[in-house]
Amino acid sequence: SSSPDMAAPAELSGLSDEAAYGACSEPDASTKDFLLQQTMLRVKDPKKSLDFYTRVLGMTLLQKFDFPTMKFSLYFLAYEDKNDIPKDKTERTSWTFSRKATLELTHNWGTENDENQSYHNGNSDPRGFGHIGIAVPDVHKACKRFEELGVKFVKKPDDGKMKGLAFVQDPDGYWIEILNPNHMVTLT
């Protein structure tokens, strides 16, 4: 017979639905107008990153901000129509910061010339940040185009256990999930 301290380790599992929803609080009324406005990624070379996010992923540069005394620039991108971007700078700034789900690329000046400089993408130890996700109408069609453009894949749509979604990498190695919202129903 085995002693109590030699018992087999418990099987690991995530939270039950009940526990997950039970851990959440009802949003305070004062947060009603809050929105997830931006995700920031540090980039080594803004020319490469801006090309990737606009030409490859189809995003639009909404606005650029330079901070010369601190030697960095910010580039805000999103899926917005160029014609909707206000021409007036003050109005444009307020508009940019009112968009949902923008991508803020931060460039610390000079990193593009430092061959030893790179950013951690969070997907190797120590793990942390994982990825951003882009919803597309047709994952296979989008990935065929990405292949033709020489985009680096972490996972192609038919690889692995989760079929129908892909992961690509941007010029800094950040992972981007390519998904179709309607197909996600079959994976969850």
Descriptive notes:
It is a single chain. Helix content is 21%, strand content 24%. The protein has five helices and eight strands. The protein has helices at 17-22, 46-56, 89-96, 139-148, 184-187; strands spanning 38-43, 60-67, 72-78, 102-108, 131-135, 152-155, 166-169, 175-179. Strands 1-4-3-2 form a four-stranded mixed beta sheet, sandwiched between helices.
What would the average pLDDT be, to the nearest integer? 94
Rg, nearest Å: 21 Å
- Strand order within the widest sheet? 1-4-3-2
SSE pattern, N- to C-terminal: HEHEEHEEHEEEH
Number of extended strands? 8
The biggest beta sheet is recorded as: 4 strands, mixed
Give the low-pLDDT segments.
none
Name the assembly state. single chain
Give the CA-CA distance, first to last residue: 41 Å
List the total number of helices. Answer: 5
Strand content is 15-25%
What's the arrangement of secondary structure elements?
Layout: H1 17-22, E1 38-43, H2 46-56, E2 60-67, E3 72-78, H3 89-96, E4 102-108, E5 131-135, H4 139-148, E6 152-155, E7 166-169, E8 175-179, H5 184-187
Parallel strand pairs: 1-4, 5-8
Antiparallel strand pairs: 2-3, 3-4, 6-7, 7-8
